[in-house]
Design brief:
single chain; alpha/beta; Spore Coat Polysaccharide Biosynthesis Protein SpsA, Chain A; 2 domains; nine-stranded mixed β-sheet; elongated
Length: about 500
């Protein structure tokens, strides 16, 4: 069966005029929705259906598929049906609302899969557990289902009415649908029914006419955009501290490998900030409170969780920049999330399900490093685990792949491959030049190779860079052979900015 995902995108909006073109972290709403939809695996095509030339132009500008439709359609279903008419080879049409920039791609796949597997259903929709605040809210549509997962009724009133207590949780309807194409075309031409007119709920037309609607239950509801307040709320998902990380501007994650006392660590951070402000680069401070992955038991690991977070909190306040550090265990997540603006999953731990999922569940942005033992395409599974937490603010970092003993190689193909996942891609320029275990009880490195690999990564179109820097790397207490001299940072960043501008312009 061929599956089409269609996103109706109407310009007119009573509460938020021009809504599809409003900005969310540097990208329009329609682009955000489109980028989430194309992450779904089952649809063969994703199309924006619009009635406005400016929306058409915007979709074409970011390389999306778009179809102009009539401006006279009274409902989104009518607009959907017009597009479906032009797709005779497609069997299933998934309708993704054009105001949900955080839509879970897995839900799109689940809707389509349900229609494929259940021939008795004409359409499928989604529900989520009803919150207490929604009980008396008529805009929160309720749905009752039978034991086969089919809708019995939709209402703006509380159903079922709890004479005593709810035996099963009440459900709130979420407005995303999948239709069999032939039914959709029929549905769009049906006359309004009495129940539909009474409740002002279009889906009752299908039920009243004897058609079956499957209902999939999910645990969380995505944020829909209807007001200025909704825009502010969803923008926050893409923020790291006081920065917006969306790929539109180059950003740098930098600092010493490990916290080496407050004064020296602060000094390094202050100098990096000065350089970044001078060059117009967004800056996230990095230093590890614990280096758990050490060659020797006796190697310096850092001040530990409690003291390390205290120092990072102070540096964050002093420099007024976001801070990042590694987390190694689920027991660290709660305390780390109280201080850190971004959590980082070390490369060796990227497959630890509880850790990556737990990090995403904190709601904080998460940067996960690709394991030295993994192919670029394998990172999709890691990101899928974090997407289960409905956290869209994720990033993935390349730091090389093991090549024989004591050597790492960076495959530049990994950057465009991982950018297809829809998240910022970062290049770790300093860990990529490590020679793991090459010096016996400590890791070696080729610091002189950092500029060459960093410039190559910039030419491959990365969104940001990770670099461990130090005023005197040979004195560094961790990774002394591969940290970049602080004095070399400004010159290298100038090169990376120039290359980045060329690459982004060519796109």
């Amino acid at each position: 069966m061929k599956i089409a995902c269609i996103i109706p995108s109407r310009y007119a909006s009573t509460r938020l005029p021009g809504k599809p073109l409003r900005m969310i972290a540097g990208k329009t709403l329609v682009q955000r929705v489109y980028e989430r939809a194309i992450l779904a695996k089952l649809p063969d095509v994703v199309i924006v259906a619009t009635d406005h030339k400016d929306i058409e132009k915007e979709v074409r500008s970011f390389g999306g598929d778009v179809v102009m439709t009539s401006a006279d359609h009274p409902t989104g279903t009518d607009r959907l049906a017009e597009v479906a008419e032009s797709l005779p080879d497609y069997d299933i049409i998934v309708n993704v609302q054009g105001d949900e920039p955080l839509i879970d791609p897995n839900v799109i796949d689940l809707l389509a899969k349900t229609l494929v597997e259940r021939a008795e259903l004409d359409m499928v929709t989604v529900a989520t557990p009803l919150k207490n605040d929604d009980y008396e809210d008529p805009s929160a549509v309720k749905v009752v289902v039978n034991q086969k997962g089919e809708a019995l009724y939709f209402s703006r009133a509380l159903i079922p009415y709890p004479r005593h207590d709810f035996v099963v949780p009440a459900l709130k309807h979420v407005g995303i649908y999948a239709y069999r194409r032939e039914f959709l075309l029929e549905y769009a031409h049906m006359k309004q029914t009495p129940l539909e007119m009474t409740e002002s709920l279009e889906q009752l037309r299908a039920l009243e006419s004897g058609h079956k609607i499957g209902v999939i239950t999910v645990e969380t509801e995505d944020i829909g955009i209807d007001t200025e307040e909704d825009l502010k709320k969803v923008n926050a998902y893409f923020e790291v501290g006081n920065l917006t990380i969306d790929g539109s501007r180059l950003f740098l994650i930098a600092g010493p490998c490990v916290i080496e006392g407050y004064d020296r660590t602060l000094m390094i951070g202050r100098e990096v900030k000065r350089i970044c402000e001078k060059l117009g680069v967004q800056y996230i401070f990095k230093a590890s409170f614990d280096k758990a992955n050490r060659s020797s038991y006796h190697s310096f690991r850092g001040p530990g969780l409690e003291e390390g977070l205290r120092i990072l909190k102070s540096i964050k306040k002093e420099l007024d920049v976001p801070v990042l550090s590694d987390v190694h265990d689920v027991t660290q997540l709660e305390k780390a999330a109280e201080v850190l603006d971004m959590l980082q999953i070390p490369a060796f731990l990227c497959r630890q399900t509880d850790l990556v999922y737990g990090a995403a569940m904190t709601g904080k942005p998460v940067n996960v490093k690709k394991g030295q033992f993994m192919a670029p395409e394998d990172m999709k599974n890691v990101l899928d685990k974090m997407e289960e937490a409905h956290n869209p603010n994720l990033a993935v970092t390349e730091r090389g792949v093991s090549f024989g003993y004591h050597n790492l190689v960076v495959d530049m193909r990994s950057f465009p491959m991982m950018r297809k996942f829809g998240y910022p891609v970062i290049y770790d320029a300093t860990h990529s030049v490590q020679l793991p275990g090459a010096m016996g009880t400590v890791t070696g490195g080729q610091r002189d190779m950092i500029p060459y690999l960093a410039r190559a990564a910039a030419a491959s179109g990365v969104d940001g860079f990770f670099m461990e820097v130090h005023d005197n790397p040979p004195e560094g207490l961790s990774d002394s052979t591969n940290m970049l001299y602080l004095s070399s940072l400004e010159g290298l960043l100038k090169d990376l900015i120039k290359i980045n501008e060329i690459v982004k312009h060519d796109k």
